[in-house]
Amino acid sequence: RFDRAFGEAGLEARRKRLEEDSKRVVGRRRRAEEVVAAVESLMECEMDGAVMEAERSACVRAVFEAREACGAADARVRREFKEREVELTRLRVMLSELKESCSILRKQGASFC
Prior knowledge:
The radius of gyration is 48 Å and the shape is rod-shaped. It is an all-alpha fold and 113 residues long. The protein has one helix and no strands.
């Protein structure tokens, strides 16, 4: 009877240790799953951050290219304006010369001016 009682007590103690070990294993697994989830979340955030940085870089590049294009267009418009201003000045001079010639011809009696 003593052996049986001692054996049963030993089995009960072992069962309790196994239950405690099982609880610890379950707790460790739960913490490990939480760590894995946190790492996955962090990786997603890093990927989102990388995507956002790439999008920001693309926007900065697009703004820079747009500014360059506007600068080039502005320079082209200024150049064309100066060219037309020179042409207008040349035409004014020609008109002035024509008026002067017509004035001279009228004084000489020409009727077509």
